[in-house]
Amino acid sequence: MLTLYYAPGACSMASHIGLEETGAPYQTKLVSFADSEQRSEAYLKINPRGRVPALSVDGTILVENTAILTYLAKQFPSAKLLPADPLAEARCISNMAWFSNTVHPSFTHINRPERFANDPAAHTNLKETGRKNFWANLQEIDTMLQEKDWIMGSQYTACDPYALVFYGWGLRINLPMKELAAYTAFKQRILVRPAVRKILEREQSILLSAPAA
């Protein structure tokens, strides 16, 4: 049995959508950040890092979106969440790694500056720098989507729900997302997918209330 531990609006949304796209049966366990459940003794037994997502595969725990999405794509190939060509597959995984190691941390500097500096006096600068870097990363994603339907081109892959996470975060902090025309058009396309819509409704995502371009 597959069980996904997630928090609404967190980066776990990418794996949540990916899991729904496979069509496989699964269970979900909501981890309430508002109640600090990610730091609870019970959850730390699942993921000692205190982060989401975590995927239990018959009791074996897998963490990190890049790993979870790659596993799901390999385990359920009929969902076609990775390109068939080995080089294109590697490029898709590379994109997810960049999302994880660059785009996500730039946002974390905005809303969790205490992770990067103990001195509160440094937090304002960290937030400002994070906002600048996050916007630059969103602009790069917009460039990646120029004249394409999806991140990898004509094929929808595991990269796409991951990219959607950051669009939602941009809305959350009131960035001018409509200026990113290709990214905004991508957002409108992906919202039509039944699996995406189902998960956004389950998580009560800000993306559902965002106006079309």
Walk me through what this model shows.
- The chain is α+β, with helices and mostly antiparallel strands.
- It has 2 domains: 2-79, Glutaredoxin (3-Layer(aba) Sandwich), CATH 3.40.30.10; 86-193, Glutathione S-transferase Yfyf (Class Pi), Chain A, domain 2 (Up-down Bundle).
- 51% of the residues lie in helices and 8% in strands.
- It contains 8 helices and 4 strands, in the order βαβαββαααααα.
- The protein has helices at 13-22, 41-46, 65-75, 86-111, 123-144, 159-172, 181-190, 194-203; strands spanning 2-6, 26-30, 54-57, 60-63.
Short description:
The protein has 213 residues and is of the alpha+beta class. Helices cover 51% and strands 8% of the residues.
Which secondary structure elements does this structure contain, and how are they paired or packed?
Layout lengths: L1 E5 L6 H10 L3 E5 L10 H6 L7 E4 L2 E4 L1 H11 L10 H26 L11 H22 L14 H14 L8 H10 L3 H10 L10
Parallel strand pairs: 1-2
Antiparallel strand pairs: 1-3, 3-4
Helix pairs in contact: 1-3, 1-6, 1-8, 4-5, 4-6, 5-6, 5-7, 6-7
CATH class of the largest domain: Mainly Alpha
Give the end-to-end Cα distance, rounded to a whole number of Å: 40 Å
Going by helix content, strand content and strand pairing, the class is alpha+beta
Strand content: 5-15%
CATH-defined topology of the largest domain: Glutathione S-transferase Yfyf (Class Pi), Chain A, domain 2
Unreliable segments of 5+ consecutive residues: none
Note the main sheet.
4 strands, mixed
Query: What is the 3D shape?
Result: globular
Mean pLDDT: 96
User: What integer value in Å does the Rg equal?
Assistant: 17 Å
Helix content: 40-55%
Question: Which CATH architecture of the largest domain would you pick?
Answer: Up-down Bundle
Count of spatially separate domains: 2
Helix tally? Answer: 8
Largest sheet, spatial ordering of strands: 2-1-3-4
In N-to-C order, the SSE pattern is EHEHEEHHHHHH
